[in-house]
Amino acid sequence: MTILLMYSTHVPSSRHIETLRSMGLNVVVARDEQHAVALAPEVDIVFGHRYLRQISAHAKRLKWVQSTAAGVNRLPLKALKAMDVLLSRNIYDADVIALHAIAMSLGLIRAIAFEHESYRKHEFRCLPNNAMVLGTGQIGKRVAKKLKGIGIKSIQGVNSDGRAVRGFAQTWSSKNWIQGARSASLVIDCLPADSVLLDDTFFGALPESAFFVSVGRIENIKVKAMELALRKGRLAGAALDTKQYSNKGSEDVPNLLLTPHCASHDEGREARLENAFESQLQRYLNGETLQGVVF
């Protein structure tokens, strides 16, 4: 059985490669896209997704893909389903991402740093009494736990069907969640792409001087509506973790904090993922249920 490693975040460690070999696998590492395509016909398992779209047409033996990403909307899902490939996503960065969301929230509330310091328009604030977390999965649950840890008492959640989730005082569905947003002084977005649209209706529903933080996908956010809410003061501050936001022509947007899509990163990430993926492989070889299965 052959496993192809093609991590986009790091070069696999020699320890990781030897551990996988000790489990009885032939381990190959893609040097680049061309090399990955050449290796694809003999591959049974892929760890990482760097060249997944390019190799999918050539990987006729492929049975399982373990992605290094939490969101999978940018992967060749249709092709993988047609090939009857098992796909699992990365659930192992959830705590670090949640910590980043809390850090950005406190940065806004305490007016610590903004993209344009000269446009800081509000003073230091106390912690809000209530918050809403968009998404009640691995990341959302950890965000809720950390919010309680810093003293926010009432936390609402939003998921597709409004099902109750431990750690949330109340949950809303994607159909009626705007109603709950009307009382949320802090909203933290943890949603994957194509979940809900954060548009004029959403920003207009928030209470005056609310805070908005996103560690989700910027594709869900109507950026112009967010900027208008910041300028009008309906939003006291907004923070986005993305490389895709362009504020060209919007340099006067007040109380905006940006981080460069780094919420999942820390000095221990490489080892964390390698250890987690080794455990995943052991489950796969034992015929056990994998963690983070997409389909």
Radius of gyration: 21 Å
Question: How far do the termini sit from each other?
Answer: 21 Å
CATH superfamily of the largest domain: NAD(P)-binding Rossmann-like Domain
Task: Based on the coordinates given, report the CATH architecture of the largest domain.
Answer: 3-Layer(aba) Sandwich
The CATH topology name of the largest domain reads Rossmann fold
Oligomer: single chain
Strand segment tally: 12
Describe, in short, the structure shown.
By secondary structure, the chain is of the alpha/beta class. It has helices at residues 14-22, 33-39, 52-55, 77-82, 94-109, 138-149, 177-181, 200-205, 223-232, 269-286; strands spanning 2-5, 26-29, 45-47, 64-66, 86-88, 130-134, 154-159, 170-173, 186-189, 210-214, 235-241, 256-259. The protein has ten helices and twelve strands.
Q: What do you see in this structure?
A:
The chain folds into two domains: 2-92 and 267-286, Rossmann fold (3-Layer(aba) Sandwich), CATH 3.40.50.720; 94-259, 3-Layer(aba) Sandwich (Rossmann fold). It has helices at residues 14-22, 33-39, 52-55, 77-82, 94-109, 138-149, 177-181, 200-205, 223-232, 269-286; strands at residues 2-5, 26-29, 45-47, 64-66, 86-88, 130-134, 154-159, 170-173, 186-189, 210-214, 235-241, 256-259. It contains ten helices and twelve strands. α5 (94-109) packs across α6 (138-149). The strands form two sheets. A seven-stranded parallel β-sheet has the order 8-7-6-9-10-11-12. It has a five-stranded parallel β-sheet with strand order 2-1-3-4-5, covered by helices on one side. The chain is an alpha/beta fold and 295 residues long. The model has no long low-confidence stretch (mean pLDDT 91).
